Amino acid sequence: MTQESMFAGSNTNTQRIDREKMADSMNTPLVNVVSGETAEPETVTNAELKAAACQASLGIEDGRIPDNKLTASTVWDDYHGPSNARLNRPAEYPTVGSWSAKYNNISQWIQVDLGVLVGVTGVLIQGRAYNVDARLLGGSDCCPQWVTEFKVQHSNDGIDWHYVLSHNNQDAMIFDGNTDQTTVVTNLFPTLVEARFIRIQPTAWNVHISLRFEVLGCQE
Q1: CATH 2.60.120.260-classified regions of the chain
Q2: If you ran DSSP here, which 8-state letter would residue 180 be given?
Q3: Which of 29, 71, 121, 182 is the most buried if burial means most Cβ atoms within 10 Å?
Q4: pLDDT by residue (tens digit) across 188-207?
Q5: Percentage of the chain lying above the pLDDT 90 cut
Q6: Residue of 207, 68, 46 whose CA lies nearest to 119
Q7: pLDDT, greater one: 183 or 29
Q8: Are the beta carbons of 162 and 155 closer than 8 angstroms?
Q9: Candidates 3.30.565.10, 2.60.120.260, 1.50.10.10, 3.40.630.30; correct CATH number of 54-217?
């Protein structure tokens, strides 16, 4: 780079910065010198800022949420109950590493009671843990089970439920689930929702409805 071109680049940058500072101090919009068009400032809503900051795990995986706050529509048996649905829970004989529904249909669900209204921004989902004691439960390949698609509902009282809506705010959003037993898949909501109860409703699955999960939101 020649001395002349180096100084030219420096001067151009300085002029741009000075112009921005001047426009800011005068509280006037910047104007594109080439096109003459006014540059509209990017705006971020308070809801978007809050959602970006509120992605803490809310206590399913680490046990802050007690077992009796995890409930489900049905269970395969006592060894497949909702308390086994904590994210990253291993399979520990005789219980298994997941909640498993008794039936495979779209009426099945698992939910958590967070105890108070919380700003919720998403969920983490995982398949049924590989069972190191599979030989005791029917075979070395037990059990390749996970949810491939699901919807999420939220409620303030556990009675009136509302779906997390897609970006058009008209249809229930269908979230991507898992493709294996171990990978954790993160699904963020289009917008933050205020809720005490979060319910996962599987709509498609591999072999059988089984899952582990966590809820993300605003940590007090």
Answers
A1: 54-217
A2: S
A3: 121
A4: 999 999 999 999 999 999 99
A5: 62
A6: 46
A7: 183
A8: yes
A9: 2.60.120.260
